């Protein structure tokens, strides 16, 4: 099968100026003998039939659009388009076309707009020069003008020539004059033609025409023409909305008339693009690219002009933070700053940096701290949007401001705490604002975007600040909703289970889920700080209370928090989990879930599967020792049997290791006894025997010391009977007369201090087992009572 790069759809333009799909196939460029030239061939992918056979003519204007479209005209009223599945295929065919025509593939149009050879193809347009000769601007010729404008839209060359003609003759203002006449006469047919003409002129996509059409004396007439869409029974009332409903609010009077005019123009042009003009089809998107650029550069100019007016912005921020400012006025000021920041997104990165630095110098963050704490919901929402612009631009700038705030006794005034409280107190049932704020907090505490300075790291400073002054505010709702769990341990067996969470309050459950999501992020990225916080607050136990929630999404959030902790494979966390018996609520949730096969069931099993696969020995031993009886009936997965298998393997390894230690100790005793027996047989006192005895002694001593060294390295002590620790009785050879042997043997006998008491106890003896069993019984009596479900 042909590769997908060459897969295309073939389109032709019908009489109604709509594109018809002619089929899908694979395109190739091949020399066709019949056409005497390189041609584009498209064969249908269904049956291999020929969908298109088009010779690449040296004089045909081909246009590439949107990286995956090639459009051209075969004849005056026969336009074609190839829509490629992949950009690479489009580029490949485009290079072939440009190669045939001798053009640069970097161009999007292969022919010069005023190429004389192209003018011969404009048979329906009489012309005496390079420009199109437009019909006289009269009421009786409106239909002819409309047909001319709509007919050129498919050809880039024709569009260029028509645009030049419209600009050279001041034709636009004459057309708008006819519009006023038609409206006075209520000439609906003429008004419908003018709609087609003005819409077509906009699609010519020429900035010079836009400058005329969107000038103060023309733009409302342009809007008026666009009200009379022939498809509508009654015309729209766009001009009425722009002049009466839409009000221009000046929060601070703008004295610069050019700036005022630019703001009005931008609003109206944006209205034309977003409201009046229909959504462009896939082939029309590029027709309005210049209109988009026109709006873009207007916004850049507005931001630059406002930014340069220091007196204006200073007054804005002074009134914003003034306690005497009325609420309605403050709302307008905040909305202005929000729109100002939105406009700034059009700036180039360098200019945007300067823009936000200007706002920072004017005190945008202290102002936000004040307005975000206000009761007005609209003001808070707008302030949140401004804050999001600042965080997205520079998290470091926000962190630096926060850490420089004076540390007052009341932490509530800190900006981050204001943000957290707004998140917690979001009145929206769906918590839309809280979700947005949680994302901003996550960005601020993300170490990935923290910079390292010369002497200290921003990460260390800010995280220490956050955990000291802000973390308790973030976790307050979580701790408050799990506060009564400790009392549940005192419930008698068989009594009803008290659920301290507010499970019926969906909004509270959503909020706790958001907080847990942020805490889970902290576990993953803040290793030291969050570990200390979890240990000090016993946070995991409180979080696992939420496994009881009737909202499954909240139980899953709690489980995800624990899963992330276990995923770190940190023994500090593992010991904390074992000591607190924190698997109990998870296993209770699994058992309560019963035979239902749902996400909660799968997530819990995945947690245990991870422990098994990663072979986390301490947790495996804890789970099997304490919960295996409750879990062994679960056989639809092999996870728990696998955990038991891992546990048994580890016990076998430990047992083998202990047996090996015992065997090594016995071989050491046998070597010692052999040596002492050899020593007892030596009582002749003859010189020959004496020298042979010394040689034998050297060998025995060497073996003895090697064995003893091996026993020490293997961490083995002697038996409790203390054979190695007792000096054997003196043999007859050890007499004063036998001075040579005596001197050697006395060196060999400092056996008492060799045995070290620290090594005793590493070997398992029956007496020790009895003692350990007694200790375990005492610990079991002291441990908290298990829930009835686990023992049943």
Keywords:
single chain, 59% helix, EVH1_PP4R3, seven-stranded antiparallel beta sheet, 35 helices, coiled coil, Serine/threonine-protein phosphatase 4 regulatory subunit 3, extended, 792 residues
Give the C-alpha Rg.
Answer: 44 Å
User: Widest sheet: strand order?
Assistant: 4-3-2-1-7-6-5
| Anisotropy-based shape | extended
Low-confidence runs (pLDDT<50, min 5 residues)?
Answer: 113-130, 485-503, 679-694, 711-792
- Oligomeric state: single chain
**Helix residue percentage:** 55-70%
Distance between the termini: 63 Å
- Main sheet? 7 strands, antiparallel
Number of helical stretches of at least 4 residues: 35
| Class derived from helix and strand content | alpha+beta
Tally the beta strands: 7
Overall residue-averaged pLDDT value: 78
Quote the beta fraction: 5-15%
């Amino acid at each position: 099968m042909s590769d997908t790069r060459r897969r295309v759809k073939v389109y032709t333009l019908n009489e109604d100026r709509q594109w018809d799909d002619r089929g899908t196939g694979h395109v190739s460029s091949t020399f066709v003998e019949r056409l005497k030239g390189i041609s584009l061939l498209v064969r249908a992918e269904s049956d291999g039939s020929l969908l298109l056979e088009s010779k690449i003519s040296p004089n045909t204007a081909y246009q590439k659009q949107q990286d995956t479209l090639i459009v051209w005209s075969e004849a005056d009223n026969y336009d074609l388009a190839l829509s490629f599945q992949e950009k690479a295929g489009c580029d490949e065919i485009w290079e072939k076309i440009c190669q045939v025509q001798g053009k640069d593939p970097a161009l999007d149009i292969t022919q010069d707009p005023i190429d004389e050879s192209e003018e011969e193809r404009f048979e329906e347009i009489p012309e005496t020069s390079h420009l199109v000769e437009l019909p006289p601007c009269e009421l009786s010729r409106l239909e002819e003008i409309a047909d001319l404008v709509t007919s050129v839209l498919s050809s880039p060359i024709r569009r260029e020539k028509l645009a030049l003609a419209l600009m050279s003759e001041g034709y636009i203002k004459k057309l708008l004059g006819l519009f006023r006449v038609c409206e006075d006469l209520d000439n609906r047919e003429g008004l419908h033609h003018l709609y087609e003409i003005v819409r077509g002129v906009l699609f010519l996509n020429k900035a010079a025409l836009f400058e005329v059409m969107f000038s103060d004396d023309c733009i409302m007439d342009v809007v008026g023409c666009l009200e009379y869409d022939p498809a509508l029974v009654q015309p729209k009332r766009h001009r009425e909305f722009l002049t009466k409903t839409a009000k221009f609010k000046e929060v601070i009077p703008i004295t610069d008339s050019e700036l005022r005019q630019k703001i009005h123009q931008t609003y109206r042009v944006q209205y034309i693009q977003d409201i009046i003009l229909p959504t462009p089809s896939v082939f029309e998107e590029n027709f309005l690219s210049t209109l988009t650029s026109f709006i873009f550069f207007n916004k850049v100019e507005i931001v630059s002009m406002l930014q340069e007016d220091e007196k204006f912005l200073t007054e804005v921020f002074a009134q914003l933070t003034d306690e005497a400012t009325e609420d309605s006025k403050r709302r307008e000021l905040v909305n202005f700053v929000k729109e100002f920041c939105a406009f700034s997104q059009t700036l180039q990165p360098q200019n945007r940096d300067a823009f936000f630095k200007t706002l920072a110098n004017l005190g945008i963050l202290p102002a936000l701290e004040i307005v975000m704490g206000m009761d007005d919901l609209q003001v808070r929402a707008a302030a949140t949007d401004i804050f999001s612009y600042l965080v997205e631009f520079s998290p470091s700038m926000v962190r630096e401001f926060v850490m420089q705030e004076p540390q007052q006794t009341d932490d509530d005034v800190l900006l981050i705490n204001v943000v957290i409280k707004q998140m917690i107190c979001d009145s929206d049932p769906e918590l839309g604002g809280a979700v947005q704020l949680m994302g901003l907090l996550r960005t601020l505490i993300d170490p990935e975007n923290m910079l390292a300075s010369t002497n200290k790291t921003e990460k260390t400073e800010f995280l220490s600040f956050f955990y000291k002054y802000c973390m308790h505010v973030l976790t307050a709702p979580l701790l408050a909703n799990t506060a009564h769990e400790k009392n549940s341990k005192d419930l008698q067996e068989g009594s009803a289970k008290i659920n301290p969470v507010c499970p019926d309050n969906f909004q509270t459950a959503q909020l706790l889920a958001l907080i847990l999501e942020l805490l889970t992020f902290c576990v993953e990225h803040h290793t030291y700080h969050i570990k200390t916080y979890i240990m000090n607050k016993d946070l995991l136990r409180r979080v696992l209370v939420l496994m009881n929630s009737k909202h499954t999404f909240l139980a899953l959030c709690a489980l995800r928090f624990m899963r992330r902790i276990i995923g770190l494979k940190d023994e500090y966390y593992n010991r904390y989990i074992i000591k607190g018996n924190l698997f109990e609520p998870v296993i209770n949730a699994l058992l309560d879930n019963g035979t239902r096969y749902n996400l909660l069931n799968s997530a819990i099993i995945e947690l245990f599967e991870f422990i098994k696969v990663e072979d986390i020995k301490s947790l495996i031993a804890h789970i099997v020792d304490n919960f295996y009886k409750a879990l062994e009936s679960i056989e639809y997965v092999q996870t728990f049997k696998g955990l038991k298998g891992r546990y048994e393997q580890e016990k076998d390894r430990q047992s083998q290791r202990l047996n090996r230690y015992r065997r090594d100790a016995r071989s050491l005793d046998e070597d010692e006894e052999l040596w002492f027996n050899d020593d007892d047989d030596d009582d002749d006192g003859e010189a020959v025997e004496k020298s042979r005895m010394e040689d034998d002694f050297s060998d025995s001593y060497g073996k003895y010391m090697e064995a003893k060294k091996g026993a020490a390295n293997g961490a083995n002590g002697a038996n409790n009977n203390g054979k190695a620790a007792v000096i054997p009785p003196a043999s007859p050879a050890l007499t004063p007369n036998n001075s040579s042997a005596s001197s050697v043997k006395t060196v060999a006998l400092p056996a008492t201090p060799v045995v070290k008491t620290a090594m005793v106890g590493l070997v398992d003896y029956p007496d020790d087992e009895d003692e350990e069993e007694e200790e375990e019984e005492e610990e079991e009596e002291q441990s908290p009572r298990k829930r009835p479900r686990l023992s049943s």
